[in-house]
Amino acid sequence: MVEFWAQRNDPMARARERFASGDRVEGVRAPILQSWQRCRDLGLRPDRFELPYDANLDLESPLVRAALPVLGRVEPAFLGPVSLIITDSDGTVLVRRTGDRSLDPLLDAIQLLPGFRYAERLAGTCGLGTALAERRLHHVRGPEHFAECLQGFACFAAPVLNPLSGRIDGAVNLTCRASDARPAMESFIQKARNSIEQQILDTCSQRERTVLQAYVQARRRGCTAVAVTGEGVASVEALGDTGLSRRDQEVLQEKATELLCSGVVAAAEVMLSTGRTAMLLCRPVTTPSGISGAAVEALLPSTSGHSTRLPRPAEPEPAEPARWSPQRPDPEPAGTPKAPKTPKAAETSDPGSGEAGRLLLVGEPTVGRFAMQTRRRLQLLSEGGVRIGTTLDVAQTAAELADVAVPQLADFVTVDLLQSVLSWEEAAETGGPLHRMAVGSIRADCPFYQMDTQFEFVPTTPQARCLATGQSILEPDLTLAPGWLAQDPVRTEKLLVEQGIHSLMTVLLRSSGTVLGVVTFYRSEKPDPFENDDLSLAEELVAHAAVCIDNARRYTREHTMAVALQRSLLPQGLPQQGAVEAAYRYLPALAGVSGDWFDVIPLSGARVALVVGDVVGHGIQAAATMGRLRTAIHNFAALDLLPDELLSQLDDLVIRLDNDALASGGGHGITGSSCLYAIYDPSSGQCTMARAGHPPPALVTPDGHVTLADLPPGPPLGLGGLPFQVAELELPIGSQLVLYSDGLLQDHRRDIDAGVERLRQALAHPQRPPEATCQAVMDAMLPAFPQDDVTLLVTRTRRLDTRQIATWKLPSAPEVVSTLRTAVTRQLADWDLEELQFTTELILSELLTNAIRYATGPLQVRMLRADSLICEVSDGSSTSPHLRHAATTDEGGRGLFLVAQLAQRWGTRYTANGKIIWTEQDIPP
Known about the structure:
This protein is an alpha+beta fold and 925 residues long.
């Protein structure tokens, strides 16, 4: 092959040479390049051209009968040496008409004459073969042909679709010398194809009118009169004057179509919505010209509610050519409705005494079968619109597509998405590995790639060609598609032989210009191959599924981003502190991310702040607002504000944020957000808390008694002007304080009171550690489909031993400083902290000296040995000291600077009676 193409010097020849060598080819149309690839896979050579010949041509087929009048009309318009050719669906030439006889010898030389088969698998790339292979209009010019002998010609071909069956009956082709080709020829061949398809439809309509005339004549010759509606092919509106509901009319019409498909004498009873019964009778009809058809009559129930049986059909008279033909075909087609036995009452009754029937449907059985197929396709399409896309889950939507298509459309369906699509890339490339999302099968032992398998299709497979070209691929006969076998010869051979798969369709999953993947339909049980109508139906189903999958993909991506943002704004872990043992759970809502958050914030004096809050709204904006509020709470907590003061500051912040959003015209308000803030002091066991529109915490005592804390309700954040009340509780050691968001209690299956009672039962096990308590509460309380975020924070209280606390109450006198140093030295020795003696003495001396000099009221010094060494000096003044940097010439002002350098942290917190200046030092290991 390479040697032949190398002999040519034109650009197309060089392109073919590169193609034969496996190099990248440019300057060649994609359909031609794909056809070359198929020819190479089939082992064809351009210098060999041998076509099979078949002398048994069906020149009386509907295609030929419809095409001859069209050719007769267009033949006088031929300009120059042009030939029009009609082939059957396999490419066998049936008719050839030439405008210039000088072209006949050239066409004979390339075997383009009746009886020879111009299929692509035999003739290579050519207008006829490629148009039938790709099932669409196609043209091939000059060196685009695969075979050497065809490169002097230009071919324009279009497949002819039977409008009734949806099958491709054949093709119409225009062939001329390559030098005589004109762009208008493509439009010409398309118009010729359309004319032939219309002629097929007109011929069928004429045949049905003939059947109707024969039916009317037969009824007039001796049977009961029949009310004929329309022109014979009645619609639902033909029953509009009967008083039947539209649903009953549709049921009668559908059942009549089923009877018409049989073409034999058959009857059926149809139960109507009113409880009454209508009778349908199918009568075969034969026209004088020999056309076989059938008519379906309906005998509707009388107003009395009693069913009236149809009269017996009269026996045909041999002398009349247009009569009933009640004899069944021999042999009887499989699945044909059986003619019921006539009841005795009907056998003895006078045919002329029955009520008049109503002609419901008339036509040929073949057309009826086509109508049934069309109806079922429409029903499947309607069913797909309802069943596909019920959730915003990619895998579920893919499975729904497979379930809808099996077995109504295909016996096996595979749905494969590009891995890049599942990686949430916005503009995914059409290449790369695929991920099998769903497999639909009529059997469980089919050796397809299993779900969640990652793989790639080789370039010659229909799926790879579909991804590369963006066009659906139909392979009616897989034994003639070697490219499909190349994917996995062992597996595909097993599919062909053991499973009997013989036909394939592959359709691109594409939505909004983004290629998502490919869906493949296989057929094995049904002997008929896939047709164009099947491909159109598959494309409609896949198009709907693609939109649903794309919506689910985008939703999942945005939801994942929002959850990731929210989780990044939440605590990544619990901080180290010794006041409580804590555990938590956070579960984002299925419907979308909201603004729930929690916090465990270490405070001065070994205390800890516990926070749970909820921002109004859902989505990324709610998560971002939650991050702002959480940061504000951390800042307010650093000031050692009391719970009510902190919530007041947070309330003012929410009001400002809402006003800013209103002024800018963007965002949404967050008024109505809630928060619960609690401070626990392990030195005293006191817990101080306040809430703003949030559920109260649950308190579990060491004996297992569960109560909701008696905490006064506060207004939600953002209302302004209303105070927040504080509650103080003393918690026994080992008590559990449980904070949660309202999403834990919300469930459409129960009310809030029932949710609170279930929470009590889940918490009534005080011996469990907080981690186990979290899991038990989530198991008991979590809704099946939570509509809001669920946040849970469980803490078990600890207490500092009295031996870990040292307190001295001192008068405001300078001489007490030395006394304090002595006491501190002794206490540090008892705690084995001699290493901190020097720095601690210096820190307390400076703080106590400042208190004596600048403060008023009683003085108190306290040391706590917790996770760190905490020193506190309290006085009755509310004036906070300020750290400053003394100049080299200043005599004072260096005390707090030294304290800040020696301590790990230091600060001031205010009390009802004054203030406390505190420091923390790390305890050596």
